[in-house]
Structures are given as structure tokens and as C-alpha cells.
Design a protein that fits this description.
single chain, alpha/beta, Rossmann fold, 10 strands, 35% helix, globular
């Protein structure tokens, strides 16, 4: 496997993506963007990018904050994430910049691109789909379902949302609103809800039930399997 950092520009800032490519697959392969949680791109996202190479894809962990801008506490993470939640156009432009970058990289098939995201990144991949971008599919792991700031623009991507039913950050009314939104847009969408499961269920370091973030090994395994089946269809 080869891994390398890739710098690119978005909204006048330098971003630093992380590309993982396996050596034992054809010269070009489908590529999957990995959108980070609220702390910024780190080892968890990079590990997911590497894991995707074992499925026959290239993995590209993107950057929505800027090179070197990462959080190490709840307060720092919130300070990084909140400005983007308040200006969803910046999320869309950041996702589109990463998409344009990965399509120009050697070793990837620019016509077969998907995206996955975790927590804040789960919202970001949903916003990528809402933008009407030409991607095959998006997968949101315990993503935020905050309603968009503008109507969806002709969704082309297939959508899979993997949700912990007891996630206190995504109340049931937001789950229903998401379904209504995607039905109205005529999108090809799925929602998998895991019982007795809170936010951040794929993060082995999550262990704060008072905050609502708890790792769940069963939901982690089942959600990854659901993603594998979804990507196999979307990127065929």
C-alpha cells in the first residue's frame, strides 16, 4: 500500500488530504472520499482510507478545516465545526474541492467516486449529495441530520444513512424530516437504524454516555458491512 498527503485549495485555504492506494489492484480503481468528524482529519479517518484499499478502492481522507487545523478538546472541536454548520455553503465548496482534487489523482477512476463520512463528516457527505454532485453514492455514519440551508439540487447520488436510534444529537423529528426531504427530491436513499446505539458508535475512543457518544462494536461491524454492500452496488 502507498499512502501520501495531497495538498489542495478550497475557499482560499490550503487543505491536506490523505490518499491510500493498494499496489495489487488495476492501474485505476474507484475512489472513496472519507469526511472527518468534528476534530478534523486524523488517524481514525486515515485508517478508514487504508481499510478501503482492502476492498479494492482508493481511499482519500479529506480536509474541511485547513492544513494543520485540528481540535484536541470539545471546545476546540466545536470552534472548528460551528462556523461551517452556520455557513453550509462552505461545506459544499469544501466537499466539491476535495472531489475535484481526487478526480485528478493518478490511479483513480474519475467516473467512479463515492464518499463516506462520520459524525460531522456524515452531514458533509449528505450535503455533497444535496449539491447534485456527480458521485455514485454517499454513506453517512452517525451523521448529523441538521436540515439544509437551501433545497437539494437534483440529487444524483445514492444515499445510505447509518444511524444510532438513541443518538441524542439527532432527535426523531430530524430523522423523519430527512426521509421527507429525500422522498421529495426523488432520491435513491436508505436508512439503517441501530437500536440501543448512541452517537459516534464507530469510534472505539467514544465512551461518554452523558454527552451521548458511546462506541458500539456490533453497530460498528454491521454498519461497515452495510457500507460494503452499498459501495459494491454504487461503484460497480
Amino acid at each position: 500500500m502507498k499512502t501520501t498527503f495531497v495538498e489542495y485549495e478550497s475557499d482560499g485555504a490550503t487543505m491536506q488530504g490523505y490518499l491510500a492506494l493498494a499496489d495489487d489492484v488495476p492501474a485505476t480503481r474507484p475512489v472513496v472520499l472519507v469526511a472527518h468528524a468534528w476534530a478534523g482529519q486524523g488517524e481514525l479517518e486515515q485508517a478508514r482510507a487504508r481499510a478501503l484499499t482492502g476492498l479494492g478502492y482508493a481511499g482519500f481522507a479529506i480536509d474541511l478545516y485547513g492544513k494543520g487545523r485540528r481540535g484536541t478538546s470539545v471546545e476546540e472541536n466545536q470552534a472548528l465545526m460551528t462556523p461551517l454548520l452556520e455557513d453550509r455553503g462552505r461545506i459544499e465548496s469544501g466537499m466539491l474541492a476535495a472531489l475535484a482534487t481526487v478526480r485528478g489523482l493518478a490511479g483513480v477512476d474519475p467516473g467512479r467516486v463515492a464518499a463516506i463520512g462520520f459524525c460531522f463528516g456524515g452531514l458533509c457527505v449528505l450535503d455533497l449529495a444535496r449539491s447534485g454532485a456527480d458521485v455514485r453514492g454517499v454513506v453517512s455514519f452517525h451523521g448529523l441530520f441538521n436540515p439544509p440551508s437551501k433545497p437539494s439540487a437534483g440529487i444524483r447520488a445514492k444515499i445510505l444513512a447509518l444511524h444510532g436510534w438513541d443518538d441524542p444529537m439527532v432527535p426523531p423529528e430530524q430523522v423523519r424530516a430527512l426521509a421527507d426531504e429525500f422522498n421529495a427530491a426523488g432520491a435513491d436513499w436508505q436508512l439503517h437504524a441501530y437500536g440501543n446505539t448512541m452517537h459516534a458508535f464507530t469510534n472505539p475512543n467514544a465512551n461518554d454516555p452523558d454527552f451521548g457518544t458511546v462506541y458500539n462494536a456490533t453497530a460498528d461491524r454491521r454498519s461497515w458491512q452495510a457500507m460494503m454492500a452499498f459501495l459494491a452496488e454504487a461503484l460497480a
